[in-house]
Design goal:
With 225 residues, the chain is of the alpha/beta class. It is built from seven helices and ten strands. It is globular and about 50 Å long. The structure holds adenosine-5'-triphosphate (ATP). Residues 7-225 form the ABC transporter domain.
Length: 225
């Protein structure tokens, strides 16, 4: 069985204002095609862990593997490329560029990767929007669409480079229940129809229950996985 992500003995200490051992001996793996959720009380270390797993934070000890390749210790430049190519990230807030159109927002990570020509990126972006049933929004400015639509655009943007894994930090935390259910359905479809691997931090127990596995954190440790 292939694992897309593996954390081995991850520890992190915040040094200021005083030493605080926030993550303690974190070990776990995400299987290819698995939809896993991370739950735990506020302050248990979920976001801190997700930022390490997504390579955005490199200040930790232990080892992180993506597609069985050790990525701990790589330069910021290489990590930025790995992140852009392999990790899609959806935040609680969408962080769309409001003056850009929906289509332009979705195209941005592919333009940054600079592998494909503009026309192909545009076609890919349109396909992602249509897959999420928001093709009709492509030429609207991001500032002119609803909150639920913005989050779907953020998901399309996270998918544009066909990532190995999609990570989310409370991606439904800012949505009403209708839009939260919609995002959950999209994630499930991505897993079932595309075989995508997903790892999502959530406070929503119903959301977590409908994922394949709940990883539970307490005081910086994984207490069940
Ligand atoms: N830069 C920092 N320096 C010092 N302590 C920090 C820093 N960032 C976070 N912390 C502390 O680390 C702990 C874990 O924070 P983290 O944001 O990972 O928790 P969380 O489980 O995601 O919480 P929430 O559910 O509220 O988002 C908290 O006690 C927090 O106050």
């Amino acid at each position: 069985m292939k694992h897309v992500l593996e954390a081995r003995l991850i520890n992190k200490i915040f040094r200021k204002p005083v030493d605080f051992h926030v993550l303690k001996d974190i070990n776990f793996k995400v299987r290819e095609g698995e939809f896993a959720s991370i739950m735990g009380k506020s302050g248990s270390g979920k976001s801190t862990l997700l930022y390490i797993l997504s390579t955005m934070d490199t200040d930790y000890s232990g080892e992180l593997y993506l597609n069985n390749e050790l990525i701990t210790g790589k330069s910021h430049q290489i990590l930025s490329k790995i992140r852009n190519e392999h990790i899609g990230f959806v935040f609680q807030f969408h962080y769309l560029l409001s003056e850009f159109t929906v289509l332009e927002n979705v195209m941005l990570p592919a333009k940054k990767l600079a592998i494909k020509p503009h026309s192909e990126i545009q076609k890919d972006a349109m396909e992602k929007l249509e897959m999420l049933n928001i093709g009709n929004l492509a030429f609207k400015r991001a500032s002119r669409i609803s909150g639920g639509e913005k989050q779907r655009v953020a998901i399309a943007r996270a998918l544009i480079n066909n990532p190995t894994i999609l990570m989310g930090d409370e991606p439904t935390g800012n949505l009403d229940s209708y839009n939260a259910d919609n995002v959950l359905s999209i994630f499930k479809e991505l897993k079932e129809q595309q075989g995508l691997s997903l790892l999502v931090v959530t406070h929503d127990l119903d959301f977590a229950k409908s994922t394949d596995r709940i990883i539970e954190m307490e005081d910086g440790k994984i207490v069940s996985a």
